[in-house]
Amino acid sequence: MNALPPRLRSHVVILGGGFTGAAVAWHLGQSARPSITVIEPRPFLGGGLAYSSEEPSHRVNVPASRMSLVPDEREHFSRWLAHDGEAERDPDAVWRNGDVFPRRRVFGRYVAEHLAPCLETGAIRHIRDHANDVKRNGDGWIVTASGQPIAADMVVLAMTHPSPDVPAALRPIADAPGFVADVYSTDALGSIAQDASVLIVGSGLTSADTVAELDRRGHRGRILAVSRHGLRSRGHPQLRGQPFGDFAATPATTVLGLLENIRSTLAAADAGGVTWQSVFDQLRLQGPAIWSALASDERTRLVRRLRAFWDVHRFRIAPQVEAVLDRRHAEGTYDNIAASLVASSREGDRLAMNVRRRGERPVETLHFDVAINTTGPAHGKALRTNPALRSLGDAGLIRIDRHGLGVETGRDSRAVGPDGEAVPSLFIAGPLARGTFGELMGLPEVARHAQAVAAEIESRLGTPTSTASAR
Question: Which of 84, 188, 252, 414 is 20 to 30 A distant from 6 in Cα terms?
Answer without folding.
Answer: 414
